[in-house]
């Protein structure tokens, strides 16, 4: 069923952008997927990002959300790792 998939845009910052070398990705996920699954897939593709999993915050459409927040079609997801000052 094609309506069971959603398309989201992932904005990459800091270590995530460095790992991919691009500012954003557009991915499809099954309907009902939590935002934390975005991080899981990023880490599956770029294992060096695993160290950031537990300290990354999630945003959907410019609002900070909990990792279990369910994605909706067209959402813009931001993963915000800790940023060091200096």
From TrEMBL:
Belongs to the MoaD family. The keyword Nucleotide-binding applies. GO terms for biological process: Mo-molybdopterin cofactor biosynthetic process. Keywords: Nucleotide-binding. The keyword Kinase does not apply. GO terms for cellular component: molybdopterin adenylyltransferase complex. InterPro entries: Beta-grasp_dom_sf, MOCS2A, Mopterin_synth/thiamin_S_b, ThiS/MoaD-like. This is Molybdopterin synthase sulfur carrier subunit. It comes from Trichormus variabilis (strain ATCC 29413 / PCC 7937). Pfam families: ThiS. GO terms for molecular function: nucleotide binding.
